[in-house]
Amino acid sequence: MSELLSVEELHVSFESDEGTARAVRGVSFSVAPQKTLGIVGESGCGKSVSALTTLRLIPQPPGRIGPGSIRFGQKDILTLPESQMRAIRGKDISMIFQDPMTSLNPVYTCGSQIEEVLRLHKGATKAEAEEQAIEMLEKVGIPDGRRSYQSFPHQMSGGMRQRVMIAMALCCNPQLLIADEPTTALDVTVQAKILDLLQQLQESLEMSMIIISHDLGIVSDLAHEILVMYAGEAAEQAPAEELFRSPLHPYTQALLQTIPSLAGKKGRLTVIPGEVPNPLHIPDGCPFHPRCPKVMERCKTEHPPLYRAGTSHPVRCFLYD
Ligand code: SF4
């Protein structure tokens, strides 16, 4: 099956007075039609920057995109004129973020914000857009769509606001939805409902999805493929089931131990010691070496490549050399 989105050897950096922050360093991934890719890693690993770059939402300067390539169907995202990118954003590729309050405009009703997207991208009349917006609000599980249409964001709970964001993101039937930490700001029971909703909509609307999270547990039920990122690079990439069955990279193994439902079975929830490296000062050798429980001498000076042969799936670690 040909890929809907294909990212090859992508690099993204940011210039500042302190130097060059290398946020994304040669990452490759793809998303097939109607499939979900999970991108996982701690905050500062380059997940969100990779996703924002897919929509060319990185301000340049201070950002610099490249080398690398991003193809969406037949389109070369990095060379498209800005007018064509505007047509793609929100229509072919939509994005939802962690905090709906920062994405919804507090002075407009929820309905009118969805309506605006429909009028802009689908050329709908006001009456058509209103009907479709109400239908979409009901599709994302908001009771009494007609009444909620008139509500302002502050009149809704966090979970309901996130549903409005999802309605807004999906009202033009995008081929790809990027959900960046979509449930982080919500409490656990609401989280589970939003994740269920995303899964149902991904299947019923036959779209592809990228779900970004710091928590492997969040993506476990939704993703078909998982990319684990560390310090702007791919640490490990595998079909979801395989990654959970046989995680190879010490970082992935550590992330698994931080999932309460999995670690709980063994009775102990762990925290990964140390911190994600600052993209301005990525350590020599393997970037995970200062935190790795399996560190070897060579890890401190040599940079491990992504090993593909001899392992069940690609992994960046000398243990598989
Ligand atoms: Fe750990 Fe070395 Fe593998 Fe890096 S290359 S993850 S430091 S064992």
Describe the structure.
The structure is a single chain. This protein has helices at 47-54, 82-88, 100-103, 110-122, 126-139, 145-149, 158-170, 188-204, 216-219, 240-245, 250-257, 260-263; strands at 5-16, 19-31, 36-40, 63-65, 69-72, 75-76, 93-96, 176-180, 208-213, 225-230, 233-239. 32% of the residues lie in helices and 21% in strands. The protein is an alpha/beta fold and 321 residues long. The longest helix is centred in the middle third of the chain and has 17 residues, at 188-204. It is built from twelve helices and eleven strands. The model has no long low-confidence stretch (mean pLDDT 90). The structure holds iron/sulfur cluster. Residues 249-250, 286, 288-289, 292, 294-296, 299, 304, 317-319 line the site of iron/sulfur cluster. The site of iron/sulfur cluster has 14 residues, from loops.
Bound molecules: iron/sulfur cluster
Question: Helical region count?
Answer: 12
Distance N to C terminus? 31 Å
Series of H and E elements: EEEHEEEHEHHHHHEHEHEEHHH
Strand arrangement within the widest β-sheet reads 7-8-9-3-10-11
Q: What amount of the residues lies in strands?
A: 15-25%
Helix content: 25-40%
Characterize the main sheet: 6 strands, mixed
Average pLDDT, all residues:
90
Structural class: alpha/beta
Spatial extent as radius of gyration:
20 Å
Task: Please state the overall shape, judged from the principal axes of the Cα atoms.
Answer: globular
Low-confidence stretches: none
Number of DSSP strands? 11
